[in-house]
Structure formats: structure tokens, C-alpha cells
């Protein structure tokens, strides 16, 4: 009898410990099959962005283990006065056309919450005054990786710039 009660208590304790973990994983967004963004799709989106002077357009969003991956097109015609910083979002830029001066890192001052832009995710993002940082010239064919938490901005554009942007957003488990 003692063994049976002890076994039941042990099984109950294990279930209480493991069940919330199992439920959390069961409620996570399902990881889908591979997503393919065809060249014709991003090129058409880029053409519409340039023609309409649209800054940022989402092309694809795919759930992945631990978060979301978004692919978008950015068409930039003006330099940025303030930097952006995303808490939970890593960005990769693949420059297609145009060139400019990218400033990354440095000290962040005067943070102001911003929705950047709302069609691409809810990650906490901030406009910041960027003091110092690393300055680099960027142009066609370059790939830029911006880890979450790094302030960044194009301080100078030598010509309008278009690039594919890949955003990796960590999402909390339910």
C-alpha cells in the first residue's frame, strides 16, 4: 500500500511538473514547410515600392522554431536623422541598388518607443539619438547583419537605396 501511494504521489508530481512544459510546446506556432520567395515576387514588390515611394513592404512571414522570419523590401530615398534599435529583432540587409553610409553601434540616448513599421511585427523598437558608432560605406551586393539591440541608421544616401530585409524576431512561448 505504501508503495502504491508513494508511486501515485511521484506520478502526480511528475505530471504537474511536465504537463505545463508539454502544453507550452503544443501551443507554439506550428513550424511550416520551407518558404520560397521567388525572384519575380521580390522584384515586382521592389518595382511597386520604387514607383510608389513606399519605404517598407512585407513579402513573406514564416514561423520558425523560436520565432518568426519576415522578408521585406525597403526602398529608402532619404537619410535617417535618428537611429533605430530593435530589442528582439535581428535584421539582415541584402543591398540591391543604391549606396550610402551606415552607422551602427555607439551610445544610445533619448530613446522613444516606435512601431517600426507596424506591418512587419510587434517587436519593441526605439528611435534613439546615436552618439559615436562605426561608419561604413554600403552598396550593391553588400550584406549587413544587425544583431538585436544594435542602433543603426543610414546617415547619408548617395542615391536612393533598395534592399531585401530579413527580420528574425524571437517570440515568447505561450
Model description:
By secondary structure, this protein is α+β, with helices and mostly antiparallel strands. The protein has two domains: 1-30; 39-170, Sandwich (Jelly Rolls), CATH 2.60.120. It is 23% helix and 47% strand. It has helices at 2-27, 39-52, and strands at 56-64, 67-76, 83-86, 89-104, 107-114, 125-131, 134-138, 143-146, 152-170. The protein is globular, with a radius of gyration of 22 Å. 20% of the residues are buried. The model is unreliable at 1-28 (pLDDT under 50).
List keywords for this structure.
single chain; 174 residues; Jelly Rolls; three-stranded antiparallel β-sheet
CATH homologous superfamily name of the largest domain?
Answer: Jelly Rolls
The CA-CA distance between the termini, in Å, is 40 Å
Unreliable residue runs: 1-28
Secondary-structure element pattern, one letter each = HHEEEEEEEEE
CATH class assignment of the largest domain: Mainly Beta
Query: What's the mean pLDDT score?
Result: 81
Please name the CATH topology of the largest domain. Jelly Rolls
Number of domains: 2
Radius of gyration equals 22 Å
| Helix share bin | 10-25%
β-strand amount = over 45%
Give the biggest beta sheet: 6 strands, antiparallel
Which structural class matches the secondary elements?
alpha+beta
